[in-house]
Amino acid sequence: MVGNRVRAAIIRSQRITGLSPDVIAELVAEIGPLWHERHRAVLIAGPSRRALGAGAEHKLVFIDRLLATLVHLRHGATHDVLACWFGVDRSTITRAIGEVRPLLAERGCTIASGLRLRTLAEVIDHLGADGGTGIIDGTEVRVRRPAAGRKDREKFISGKNKQNAVKSMVVTDAEGRLLFCSPAEPASCADITHARKLGLVKLLVDGPAVEILADAGYQGLGAQTGGRVVTPPHRKFKKNPPEWIRGDTRAPAQGALLTPHPGRARHRSPEELEIPRPAPRPPRARERHCPSRRRAALAPAGRHDGQQYANVNTTANPRPSARYRQPCTSSLEEAQLLRRVRHQQILRLLAVHGTGTR
Fold this sequence. Notes:
six-stranded mixed beta sheet
């Protein structure tokens, strides 16, 4: 449990909670009685051997529970950190956040005095009545890794951030004022799938004419809602977009990129493919009967210069001796001849470098 000074410092600093002291006081006055009523209803409903209100009092009062929830929602602080900050157990913070978050969601978003939006249908009707433009986007909040035995444990892993998180869809107006924040879904759920689960497509088709701006994660909703959801074009239309996307403005640029260039690789035209290619050149008689390249790279057998043999393989097309230019009658004889020549070369190299056999 934090002291009065620490609690007052948290309330005064808008960077911690994101809300002004007046808004926090309004939340305490509005949500506090609802929380006490629900807590009392739970005590009455369950079997109890003691009188109502008996036992130890809460160490974490309602205002501290509200502040812990606001800090968790704004900064994504873990329950362990908040438990150390407020001086209670982690399970107390977890239970407090689970009780306060539904109350904040039911309260809705205050647009003006006397106007409060609680559902997505009310948001669409509000934008249609004013003729405004809405903006939707998905946001992710990191969470603790689910327990090992949980069935849908892998669904919380985000494909974008590769971390355990939950995802919510946020709707704002053109000025950036928050109008709606959806319940959290596992992070593996796609943005467009989350929007369909919330019934956005049906609300836009059956409701008033509203223009919704979205990013590439919502591509496909425009065709389902009659163009009311505006998204950037698909990446497959970037190079060769159809006429209803590119118009006449991008045609010169596309044509300039497709003009032939001597240094640019291009595909052959159908006319060039119809021209037959010339037949391959037949092998020459000298190439057909010459010895193998392995024999051509051998050194002459009549010299004993060490430098000569050290640079045998570095010369281009060495000329073999006339002794080894005789044609071989079979592959076995050729292999035996190569083996003898290599053995002689190894002995000469050992003799030149002063190394003898054991």
